[in-house]
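Much of what follows relies on a compact textual record of a protein's fold. A record is reproduced here so that you can trace the correspondence yourselves:
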Amino acid sequence: MAAAMVCQPTEEQHQWVGSIAGRFYKPRNRAMSHANLMNNYFNPNSKLDRAGRPGFSPHQKVIVALRMMAYGSLADSMDETHGMSESTCLDTLQQFCDIIVQVHKDEYLCEPNQEDLNRLLYKAEDRGFPGMIGSLDCMHWDRKNCPTRWQ
């Protein structure tokens, strides 16, 4: 009868217990962390409005703001599908945009430097719009398929 083979580490084999060599696994309770996050920030009953009723959840507010921006939905049309008044939709959209600007303005909403301007000028020239930076005024451009009433 053959002896059971046990694989023992040799000097060439590295031993670790984490997913990266040299790091150790730290047990974390991911389920409890998720439950705490959802309860603290996304629980529809966690915040009450001025009338003492549960307010809209962050999920609802983000969806409304994204729908209004992505599809150009009117604020008053959100009442039918999401039960949110026009004024609440507009406030939510304003808050959403303010937060996006606040978080990303330093990286994405800065004045273009000379390198950026050169890149944009080259791209516009390559597409047939020489000297154009941030302008969509193309009235001087002949369009062969433009309806005659617009010419």
Remarks:
- The chain has a mean pLDDT of 77.
- The helical segments are 30-41, 58-71, 78-82, 86-108, 114-126.
- The radius of gyration is 29 Å.
- The chain has five helices and no strands.
